[in-house]
UniProtKB/TrEMBL annotation:
BP terms from Gene Ontology: transmembrane transport
SUPFAM superfamilies: MetI-like
Cell location: Cell membrane
InterPro entries: ABC_transporter_permease (IPR051393), MetI-like (IPR000515), MetI-like_sf (IPR035906)
Species for this entry: Dactylosporangium aurantiacum
Protein name: Sugar ABC transporter permease
Keywords associated with the record: Cell membrane, Membrane, Transmembrane, Transmembrane helix, Transport
Ranges of residues in domain ABC transmembrane type-1: 67-291
One of the record's GO cellular component terms: plasma membrane
Length: 302
């Protein structure tokens, strides 16, 4: 009987695990091998160059520029997204005026949840095209609004200015991710007894103090997970940047994922691009490990 059960389980496990090994694990392993070659992607032959590609990374100005932008995103994206999401989620859960029904969310909270979550139903491609049109210098909604309210002097070629393009993309990243974490934090806050908030209000605690001293400590496990996911997203950021700015102007909004893409499919240096990918792999693992270590706290039991 036990033998038959194991055979039944293996029958369902082996095919998906085999597909995962072939289409996910195998390409990763091949990337490590290709990173040690000078393969150009189309030639059937190549030479092993050892760690030469990794040595070139240390001297590549474009790679360092992309890493600098990724580092800024790595700091700004999690902080801005989590702070905004916590504020909105707190307002949706306990931001309303207390009355006979006790602590409750703001009026229309269900509608606001839908509005905040709406960007999540859009693909990255649609979000990129949408915001590219919003930032358009002549026909864009942003400049059109500024001109309509008499602020013509603030109108800019947003994506054509090297000093602004990167920050415009960062704003889109925050906008497209806040909604998901609003819903995530809001769901986690439902497990916090409302009596805790009512007691805090009776003691005269302000909303900001309640958020900082009650909500954040009790949601810390969820915040930690959000921080790791946003950190991983910050290391990539390829799709949105590629659609909105193509890394320009003048590589001012370039990121490491787009640098890998351009190196492989633009310059046909697949060996060097694989070295960039391997470096990204270890960088992502390191950042996830550090983020988990730095955000680790003792769990609070209710």
């Amino acid at each position: 009987m036990r033998h038959g059960r194991r055979l039944f389980v293996l029958t369902f496990l082996v095919p998906p695990l085999a597909l995962y090994a072939v289409f996910v694990i195998s390409p990763y392993l091949q990337a490590f091998q290709i990173s040690l070659t000078d393969w150009r992607g189309l030639s059937p032959t190549y030479e092993y160059v050892g760690p030469e590609n990794f040595g070139r990374l240390l001297q590549d100005h474009y790679v360092w520029n992309a890493l600098k932008n990724n580092a800024i995103i790595l700091v700004a994206l999690p902080i801005l997204t989590i702070v905004l999401a916590l504020f909105f989620a707190s307002m949706l859960s306990v931001g309303g005026r207390s009355g006979k029904a006790g602590v409750r969310g703001v009026r229309g909270a269900a509608f606001y949840r839908i509005v905040y979550f709406f960007p999540q139903v859009l693909s990255v491609a649609i979000i990129g095209v949408l915001w590219k049109e919003v930032y358009a210098p002549r026909s864009g909604i942003l400049n059109g609004f500024l001109r309509a309210v008499g602020l013509d002097s603030l109108a800019r070629p947003w994506l054509g200015d090297p000093d602004l393009a990167f920050w415009c993309v960062l704003a889109v990243m925050v906008w497209s991710n806040v909604g998901f974490y609003v819903v995530l934090f809001n769901a986690a806050m439902q497990s916090i007894p409302k009596e805790i908030y009512e007691a805090a209000m009776l003691d005269g605690a302000e909303r900001g103090e309640t958020l900082r001293k009650i909500t954040v400590p009790l949601l810390w496990d969820t915040i930690q997970v959000a921080w790791v996911y946003l950190a991983i997203l910050a290391i990539d950021g390829f799709a949105l940047v590629q659609i909105v700015t193509l890394g320009g102007p003048g590589n001012s909004s370039d990121v490491i994922g787009l640098r890998l893409y351009d190196t492989a499919l633009g310059e046909f240096k697949f060996g060097y691009a694989s070295a960039i990918g391997v470096a990204m792999f270890f960088l992502t693992l390191s950042i996830a490990f550090v983020a988990l270590r730095l955000t680790r706290r003792d769990r609070i039991e209710l």
